[in-house]
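Table S2 (text version). Query chain:
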Amino acid sequence: MVVYGVTLDTAEVAIALGIGVSMLFYEKQNLVPGGVIVPGYVALTLDRPYLLLSTFAVAIITLFALRTVAGYIILFGRRKFSFMMLMSFVIAWGIQSLVALLLTYGQVASVGPTGIFQVIGFIIPGLVANSMERQGITKTIYALTIVSAITYVILYAITGK
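Corresponding structure-token output:
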């Protein structure tokens, strides 16, 4: 099985490394890089910047959606987290569907229905948005960039991929 262009074994190593590096980074910097599993998945996609940009875009849109809705609905704790996860899924799926609708049939056939706009999974943007809400957008992007890069370097040294 292939996940983000690598074997499942490599993906498992990337996620485990991401968790370890994330824990060490949190101990030293007191910053969360988007969630426990996020750096591993991001490290697997560092060679595809469009995935990173679209994932960050969906996370930021999710954050602003939360702030807008929070003025009308009481959101805290698990309810807020669940809302962010659901909103990131709906936003990513909605943008992918809109892009597919705007393309002609020939374009969709050549790149696939989500070939133009893709995100890293459907839960990763929600996890990133949750960290952005807690510690700020710039701190989260900084932490995620550093931890993912370190994870990628270690992964490359171990697996060569």
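Notes on Table S2: The chain has one domain: 2-159. Strands lie at 2-3, 6-7.
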